[in-house]
Amino acid sequence: MQISAELSLYPLTPDYDAPILAFIHRLREQPGIRVATNGLSTQLTGEYGAVMAALTEAMEPTLREGPTCSFVLKILNVAIEPGVLEEV
């Protein structure tokens, strides 16, 4: 099953750029998913298992080693190409 996930990372520190960029780089290293970013969020698309595994691999170091932070995550049970208007 193909899914899409949209997430935003909010490090609760004045130096918020570094944790966000490190997180995005870890996501881009994960196999089997498409990653797109914009100024507000990061979107992942792929098979359910691949997306969830990528999230686990990329989020854990941020939560364990980074500053206090908040992740906001939305998951959709269809694959959506970032930037493409989808008819509903």
Give a quick rundown of the structure.
InterPro entries: MTH1187/YkoF-like. The chain is of the alpha+beta class.
Task: Please write the CATH class name.
Answer: Alpha Beta
| Strand arrangement in the largest pleated sheet | 2-3-1-4
Strand content: 25-35%
Poorly predicted runs are none
Counting structural domains, the number is 1
Helix and strand string, N-terminal first? EHEEHE
| Fold-level CATH name | Alpha-Beta Plaits
Strand count, sense and barrel status of the largest sheet are: 4 strands, antiparallel
Mean pLDDT: 92
Distance between the termini: 19 Å
Shape: globular
Radius of gyration over alpha carbons? 13 Å
Quickly give the structural class: alpha+beta
Number of E strands: 4
The tally of helices reads 2
* CATH architectural label: 2-Layer Sandwich
Q: Helix content range of the residues, please?
A: 25-40%
How would you describe this structure to a colleague?
It comes from Neolewinella lacunae. This is Thiamin/hydroxymethyl pyrimidine-binding YkoF putative domain-containing protein. A hairpin with a 4-residue loop joins strand 2 and strand 3 (42-47). The model has no long low-confidence stretch (mean pLDDT 92). It is built from 2 helices and 4 strands. Helix 1 packs antiparallel against helix 2 (48-65). The chain starts with a strand and ends in a 12-residue tail after the last strand. By secondary structure, the chain is of the alpha+beta class. The protein has a 4-stranded antiparallel β-sheet with strand order 2-3-1-4.
